[in-house]
Amino acid sequence: MRRSAQKPLLLVSLVGLLALAACGREDEPDLVNGKTLFIGEGTCGSCHTLARAGTKGTQGPDLDEAFEQARLDGMNDQTIEGVVHRQIAYPARGSIMPADLVTGDDARDVAAYVGDVAGNPGEDTGALADVGVQKGGKATAENGVLKIDADESGALAFTASTATAPAGPLEIVMQNPSPIDHDIALEGDGKGPVVGTGGTSQFKTTLKPGKYTFLCTVPGHAEGGMQGELTVK
Which residue from 26, 69, 170, 199 has the fewest beta carbons nearer than 10 Å? Predict the structure, then answer.
């Protein structure tokens, strides 16, 4: 996850890291979290191309190209995960990639996702396919309350991607049935608390006619698809 002017230098670095790459882990990685963080604004995808994540960054190496031949030579997912994990923790000196861009379990999840898909043709499936894809559905305010719930599957989505409300006082309410913490906010016009499974995030605001963006402010969630447009008339 670092800038490299020469592809051979990148490949040499990868080979050199193999002996140092930590491949084992005590628990299973959260690939959904890894992909969400990878494509999040200002993180990996802004600099790296990775086809299955839908990112086309050019400042850093193309991760599909970097690992395609390595896979053909027998490198497996866990080894690639270890290489990427170490590159996240120890960027090359002079790299534009900051140290500790993601840390702890988040870094392990990002590395595991890259290890799973880099240089591996195809498309993400299941919950991974929903990351970054905004779901449909429309919500309409009733009696001064706009209800937009989090998707119960754990995908980074609300139950609606568009909403309408009349101008004036408005209470925005989100119930969170998903296994992931979420909140709901209106960009520049209010925010509810972050809540876990079974919690309710809500706030009150007063709006003029216009278009507004509602979103989850948990890092990476809006970039992963958890946002939509509110039209106030």
Answer: 26
